[in-house]
Design goal:
- The complex is a heterodimer.
- By secondary structure, chain A is an alpha+beta fold.
- Helices cover about 25% and strands about 25% of the residues of chain A.
- In chain A, the strands form five sheets. In chain A, strands 2-3-4-9-10-13-18-19-20 form a nine-stranded antiparallel β-sheet. Chain A has a three-stranded antiparallel β-sheet with strand order 5-8-7, sandwiched between helices.
- In chain A, α1 packs antiparallel against α5.
- By secondary structure, chain B is an alpha+beta fold.
- Chain B has a domain of about 30 residues.
- Chain B is built from three helices and three strands; from the N terminus they run αααβββ.
- Chain B has a two-stranded antiparallel ribbon.
- In chain B, a hairpin with a 2-residue loop joins β2 and β3.
- The radius of gyration of chain B is 33 Å and the shape is elongated.
- The chains are: A alpha+beta, B alpha+beta.
- Chains A and B meet through β1, β3, β4, α5 and β9 of A and β1, β2 and β3 of B.
- β1 of chain A pairs antiparallel with β3 of chain B, so a sheet runs across the interface.
Chain lengths: ~400, ~150
């Protein structure tokens, strides 16, 4: 593994890594890329002269999100919560929004995604930034246990009640939320002129006016070995099959909304001879099984798409039915490379990926960097699995009772 | 808390009005001092009120027209005409929450600009406390990637 130190900063404020301009062959759109959140951030913006303002805005959003929600930074707000071993906390607006989106996603997916899987991930060995994990650890993990459950976490505006021993992992929604925030902030910085696309590790949000026929995006089943998830840039004819065993990447055009991908073929490691990965089924505390290795989902916000893609991996055999009930277009790739399209995801190369209006987890109307939550988990978001949601208690009720 | 809900849910009479006050009000009703001999409204005052109403209507119409014109002007500035070539629709500024705007469109883009794919790992972030200060270090590396 080649390692190169790229940045060190002092006093808790992290200088943003520099953006690298990328030529895609289209001069009407400026494309740039940088490292962010342990993966790659990519920005495409038109008119190109808006790029500098947009990049600065994205930098601010990503730095704020990292400071709020990174499990791997000892100085992050969420790490501070975890060191307190439970209690009632007043969160920053940004973290409160991130937690509220995670809880809304849990409610919407009937608990398929669950922010309380943090302890299960740590038990499996994902207790540090992924690249620092020993890929061949010999000692076996402790006996798995189901996640405590998202219903045990209470959030009322910025007030969070976290039971002792519960550790949050916002991985099912945080990257998508970051893309949504960054897209909104970048367009605001560009004076609401033109349009842009932001990708965080392959979770893509758009804002403003899209190119004619939509933003051209590759839906791929495996990351580029050389440089993270974004290997886009070539015309359709230049694309070939991915790594061995992966199916061919597909070009789609996104006129609005977002698209995100979850997969078990990245971020995996071995422990006691067993292959583990980072998508944990909260019902078992173990890495999710099931027939799908990669799922891409389109939705109106990237937080929705991120949560739905992760939920589909965990849902396994039920994924197609779940996505159908959610009304979301999706592309599911099985372990044998077979690709299945559902919910209107275009089967042909270059097809338009139309996403339905209406977010289930994130309204996206707050100010940059994290607003006072507008989509609280007990609010309006409809539940795709009513039988699971009806049993869930209101997560605001206990705090309100305590206030009386 | 319960008393708050009851207060909001019930009808709250405004000071000086009886329980049925909102329903009893009618446009022609006036106070006793506004009526002329025989209980009819004073003619001069009646004319004045009609005049004021006519003026209000004109003002309202002017406001509507002005708002419309301002909206058109703002939209014209928001969407650059240089790139509004042959497009038929476009989306407005808020991410995801798009509003169709006829006649505006972005440029033609032939090449893919991003990939939605499994997220590889490209950097490691670590933090240390050194002399009371937090040191944040990013380390770039080739993604740790395994085929199943």
């Amino acid at each position: 593994m080649t390692m190169t130190r790229t940045l060190t900063s002092v006093s808790g404020r992290t200088a943003a890594p520099s953006w690298q301009r990328i030529s895609t062959g289209d001069h009407a759109v400026a494309v740039a890329q940088r490292d962010a959140l342990g993966t790659t951030a990519r920005l495409a913006v038109w008119p190109p002269e808006n790029a500098d303002a947009a990049m600065a805005a994205v930098d601010d959003v990503l730095a704020a999100l990292d400071q709020q929600a990174s499990r791997f930074r000892t100085d992050s707000e969420i790490s501070w919560l975890h060191r307190r071993s439970g209690g009632l906390f007043m969160l920053s607006d940004g973290l409160a929004e991130a937690v509220s989106v995670a809880l809304a996603a849990a409610r919407w997916t009937g608990g398929l995604t669950d922010p309380t899987v943090g302890s299960a991930l740590i038990a499996l060995g994902y207790d540090r930034d992924f690249a620092a994990i020993d890929p061949e650890r010999r000692d076996p993990p402790p006996a798995p246990a189901p996640a405590p459950g998202w219903q045990t976490v209470r959030l009322d505006g910025p007030l969070l009640r976290l039971p002792a021993g519960v550790r949050l992992d916002l991985g099912a929604t945080a990257k998508g939320l970051g893309s949504d925030r960054a897209a909104r902030a970048a367009l605001a910085a560009a004076g609401q002129v033109g349009g842009l696309l932001i990708s965080l590790g392959g979770d893509i949000a758009t804002a403003g006016i899209p190119p004619r026929d939509g933003w051209p995006i590759l839906a791929a089943d495996a990351p580029d070995r050389a440089g993270g998830p974004d290997r886009a840039g070539g015309p359709a004819a230049a694309r070939g099959p991915g790594p061995a065993g992966a199916s061919r990447a597909q070009l789609v055009r996104l006129p609005r909304g977002a698209v995100a991908t979850s997969s078990i073929i990245c971020r995996n490691w071995r422990r006691a001879g067993r292959l583990l990965h980072h998508i944990v089924d909260p019902r078992t505390g173990l890495p999710a099984g099931g027939p799908w290795q990669t799922v891409s989902v389109g939705a109106i916000t990237c937080a929705d798409a991120n949560a739905a893609a992760t939920a589909a991996i965990i849902a396994g055999d039920q994924a197609v039915a779940w996505l159908g009930s959610a009304g979301l277009p999706a592309r599911l790739v099985a372990h044998d490379g077979e690709v299945r399209y559902v919910g209107g995801w275009p089967a042909e190369d270059g097809g338009r990926l139309q996403v339905p209006a209406g977010s289930h987890v994130y309204t996206g109307w707050g100010p940059r960097g994290g607003a006072r939550p507008r989509a609280l988990p007990t609010g309006a978001p409809p539940c795709v699995m009513p039988e699971a949601c009806e049993e869930a208690p209101s997560s605001e009720a206990p705090i309100r009772e305590a206030r009386k | 808390m319960n008393s708050d809900r009851e207060y909001r849910a019930g009808q709250v009479p405004l000071p000086g009005f009886g329980d049925g006050a909102p329903n009893d009000w009618a446009p022609g009703d006036r106070g006793p001092g506004d009526r002329g001999p025989g209980g009819q409204p004073a003619p001069a005052r009646q004319d004045g009120i009609r005049h004021a109403r006519r003026m209000s209507n004109w003002t309202l119409a002017a406001l509507i027209a002005g708002t419309g014109a301002a909206t058109v002007a703002l939209a014209h500035h928001a969407f650059p005409s240089a790139t509004t070539t042959a497009g038929t629709s476009a989306t407005a500024a808020v991410p995801g929450q798009a509003t169709t705007v006829n006649g505006a469109s972005g440029p033609q883009v032939a090449h893919s600009v991003a990939s939605t794919s499994p997220s590889g790992v490209t950097t490691t972030t670590t933090t240390h406390i050194v002399n009371g200060k937090t040191v944040v270090t990013h380390v770039r590396h080739v993604p740790a990637y395994h085929d199943n």
